[in-house]
Amino acid sequence: MSRILITSALPYINGIKHLGNLAGSMLPADVYARFQRLRRGDANVLFICATDEHGTPAELAALEEGRSVREYCDHWHEVQKSLSAGFALSFDHFGRSSSPENRELTQSFAKALWEGGYLDERTTKQVYSHADHRFLPDRYVIGICPHCGYERARGDQCENCTRVLDPADLISPRSAVSGSPDIEIRDSKHLFLRQTAFEPKLRAWITEKQSDWPHLVTSIAIKWLDEGLQDRGITRDLAWGVPVNARNWGPNPSGALPDVEGLAGKVFYVWFDAPIEYIGATIEWANAHGLGDAGWQRWWRGPAARDVTYVEFMGKDNVPFHTVGFPCTLLGVNEREDEVHRWKLVDELKGFNWLNYYGGKFSTSQKRGIFMDAALDILPADYWRYYLVANAPESSDSSFTWEHFQGVVNKDLADVLGNFVNRILKFGAARFDSTVPEGGTWGPREDALAARLCESVGEYLARMEKREFRAAMQALRASWVVGNEYITEAAPWSAFKTDREAAALAVRVGINLARLFGELALPIVPSAAAEILNAVGVTARLPLWMQGADAFASSQRFGSENLTNLPAGHAFSVPGVLFAKIEASDIAGWIERFGGVPEA
Q: Residues 72, 388, 274, 360: is their CA dihedral positive or negative?
């Protein structure tokens, strides 16, 4: 069986992430990983993530907290790891871009690029802030974007129009640290990745991937190509990061050796080393499990990785770096490798738009919006997981509102799923002594149920395979609705009075529906799903509905395998309330707590 390697955008180390960060990468990646583990088995799926720890924001935040940068990153890595666990994100490894593994790999990639002729040394004009007494990285110079007029564009990229910038491009530049315009340009030697050298190969690769990637991803990638690639500086004047360490580099194709002294004290740009951490984190994982080089290389290098499908999940602002920047790095490194040692490029990339808060952006400084710690403080993770996946910002930006959140939770989770499970198990426990009853004859009503479920569950599986999460959740909810309609029509509570056999059949099918719903929901709401399966007495196993497309050859087979699987005499119990309804009073309090409703 082929294997699947899954990575999520790396959350930056500075502080707690908001729900937009969660919805745009980590959560859908987790849902997909859980789904694929059910289909393929744990050994054939590897889900990797890490904290992105380098760059000026970490330096400045550590300074504000009175810690060393290492202490700062140690603290926030543990906080983010804990919050990820709180949201049941099932990473096989949650690594760190500051790890020794990533440092060594980043330096080796840079060496290969230099010796292959894909790095140039250039004397650049760097921004120096007199008020701050330091060089300012590109993103800490802000000003007016020359392309769209956005007034707080950063010196590396305008977050409004996504155009890549240099600080010199900005109109009225100033320090983002102090706000001072007292800045000057000084000479500084840096390394540049010759992205222009890869344009033909990159265009051919992206064109080949167009049928597999969402339009959002390919449109961004092709826009960058059509606007013309630029060589990109990959070093910075910072103290915190992966040191360049060019002393052991050999000559480039022209015979030149690097200017070791001119590059002394430089570190690699965070956007150079951070994507490499996907591989670095896999090495961390292999080392932690004593798997050796073969343990991680089988996912990333040479013939051993040929049966791996590599899938990335990220927000649209990260797409350019993973369709242009990092692929250029790998293409350049692969030029220096024989086929046995070439590195794997991404196969499928799922990009997301932004999740906003009442139409405006989440804001840490203005304390507006919901962040991961506060979300878990008020409701269990499953409430958030279902809502964010069901409303994933796939085709366009989406907007969180408390009123919509309340409506989705109350209708889908409380009324449709939770109420079904509770009422059928409560009735079965009261009337049939907490065991699956025997009796009754399968008839047209059950045939119709099996046919409708065969269709909706098949749709759910197909959409999940394609990573079309909103459509997958619609199909999942449709399955729950079909079950509710069946049990409402069969009405075992009424039938029990006059036809115990008919009531027994309905309860037996209903309990099997609860099992099926629990298994279907495992990737989405894992805690509630586990509670359902525990109640119906199902131990961990490969769900029948996951065993391949041939299970849907007919509704009769679907019905026989999925609606009669728990036999008469099987014991079950009644779970507590799976999903409590959200009240209007809750909403009013949360709106006030999380920054109010932004003005139109």
A: negative
Cα dihedral sign, 527-532-535-541: negative
Give dist(CA 130, CA 111) in Å, integer: 34
Closest to 73 in 3D by CA, of 99, 48, 47: 99
Report how far residue 538's alpha carbon sits from residue 542's, in angstroms, rounded to the nearest whole number.
11
Question: Exposed e or buried b for every residue in 402-432, given b needs 16+ CB within 10 A?
Answer: beebbebbbebbbebbbbbbbbbbebbbebb
pLDDT in tens, 462-498: 999 999 999 999 999 999 999 999 999 999 999 999 9
Count of residues making up the chain: 600
Yes or no: say if 413 and 578 are a contact pair by the CB < 8 Å rule.
Answer: yes
Handedness of CA 98, 346, 271, 63 (dihedral sign): negative
Maximum separation of any 2 CA atoms in the chain, in Å = 94
Over residues 407-428, mean pLDDT: 98
- Rounded to an integer, the average pLDDT of 82-96 is 98
Give the residue carrying structure tokens 């890549």.
Answer: 164
Quote the pLDDT of residue 593.
86
For residue 325, the number of C-alpha atoms closer than 13 Å in the C-beta half-sphere is: 20
Distance CA 571, CA 583 (A): 35
Query: 3-class SS at 589?
Result: helix
Q: How far apart are CA 588 and CA 322, in angstroms?
A: 41
Task: Pull the structure tokens for residue 371.
Answer: 């962040």
Question: Tokens standing for 574?
Answer: 């009644």
Q: Domains, the chain, ranges and CATH? A: 3-118+194-352 (3.40.50.620), 399-562 (1.10.730.10)
Q: What is the pLDDT of residue 468?
A: 97
Between strands 308-315 and 355-357, the pairing is unpaired
> What are 273's two structure tokens?
């080393």
Confirm if 491 and 550 have CB atoms less than 8 A apart: no
The rounded percent of the chain whose pLDDT value lies above 90 is 80
Query: Which tokens go with 320?
Result: 């350019």
pLDDT in tens, 355-388: 999 988 887 656 678 999 999 999 999 999 999 9
Contact at 8 Å (CB) between 218 and 80? Answer: no
Look at residue 553 and tell me whether its pLDDT is greater than 60: no
188-203 pLDDT, tens per residue?
A: 899 999 999 999 999 9
Q: Please name the residues in contact with 326: beta carbons below 8 A apart, sequence gap of 6 or more.
A: 275, 276
Distance between CA atoms of 399 and 105, rounded to whole angstroms?
39
> What does the alpha-carbon distance between residue 84 and residue 78 come to, in Å, rounded to a whole number?
10
Residues facing residue 193 across a β-bridge = 119, 232
Question: Residue holding tokens 């979300």?
Answer: 375
Q: Which tokens hold the place of 311?
A: 């899938």
